[in-house]
Amino acid sequence: MPIDPSVAIGAELPEVEFSWTASDVLLYHLGLGAGADPEDPRELRYVYERDLQVLPTFGVVAPTFGATEPPRVSFPGVDIDLASVLHGEQGITVHQPLPVAGSARARIRIADIHDKGKAAVIVQESEAVDGAGNPLFTTRSSIFARGEGGFGGHRGPSGSTTLPDRDPDAELLSPTLPQQALLYRLCGDRNPLHADPDFAAAAGFPRPILHGLCSYGVVCKALVDGLLKGDTARVAGFSARFAGVVYPGETLRTRVWESDDRILLTTSVVERDDAPVLADAVLTIH
C-alpha cells in the first residue's frame, strides 16, 4: 500500500544537519532571476557578497541545497512515484534573519495526510535551529499525490484566504527566463519534471515546468523589492498554495493588498490570461 496513514501521521524523519555558504545564497538568488540589472545597488545586495542579504525563502531549500539526485517520496508509511507528485503548499516562519553563511539542524515530521478522493495530500513540518540551538525558521509544506487518495482518511481543511473587496494596492510583474528551471535546479531540486521533456510529457505537461519553489521565491523577492524597500529582514513569514504551473519564460503578475502587518496576494501568468499560480498567499511583516 503506497500510503498507510496509521504509520505515516506523526512519524519523525531522521534529523537533518546542513550548512550553507555565501556562494549557495548567491546561486539561489541567481536562480530566482536576481541581478537582472547588475548595476542596481538593490540587486547587488542579492548577487554580490558585499552587503549580501538573504531572502527568507532560502530557508526552505537550505536543508537539501546542492542535492544531485532526484528527490524520493519515500517516508514511513508513504512510498509514491515521483511522477505523480506536485508541490501543494509551502510556508516559512522566520525566527531570526538568516545569516549569509551558517549551519543548522532540522527536525522533520509528517504532520498529517489528507484524503482528497483521487489524490492524497501529505503535510510535513520542520523546525530548524542554529548551531547554538536557537530557533532559526519553521517550515510547513504539502505535496499533492495524484491517484493516491481513497484510503479512507479525512479530507483536511478547505478554508481559503479572503481578499479585500477593493482593487489591489499594487501590481508587480516578474519575468522569468526560458532557462530558469535549468538554473534553479542547481539549488538542489533535480526532479526531471523541470528539465526532461519526455518526463514532463509522461506527467501530463507539454514541456518542463518551473519549480513551484522557484515561483515562490521570485514572488517573495518581488514583494520585498516592491513593498519593503528591498529589506529582507522585514519578512516574518511567507505562505502560499500552488494553484497552477509556470512554464519557464512566462511573466508572473502579483496583485497585492496591504493589511496592517500582512500582505495578501495572488499570482498569475500574464501570457495565459492570468492563469493562477499562487493562491491563499500571505506575507507577514516584522
TrEMBL record:
Pfam families: MaoC_dehydratas, MFE-2_hydrat-2_N. Residues 163-272 form the MaoC-like domain. InterPro entries: HotDog_dom_sf, MaoC-like_dom, MFE-2_N. SUPFAM superfamilies: Thioesterase/thiol ester dehydrase-isomerase (SSF54637). It comes from the Bacteria. One of its GO terms (biological process) is fatty acid beta-oxidation. One of its GO terms (molecular function) is enoyl-CoA hydratase activity. Residues 18-147 form the Peroxisomal multifunctional enzyme type 2-like N-terminal domain. Belongs to the enoyl-CoA hydratase/isomerase family. PANTHER family: ENOYL-COA HYDRATASE CHSH3, PEROXISOMAL MULTIFUNCTIONAL ENZYME TYPE 2-RELATED. This is 3-alpha,7-alpha,12-alpha-trihydroxy-5-beta-choles t-24-enoyl-CoA hydratase.
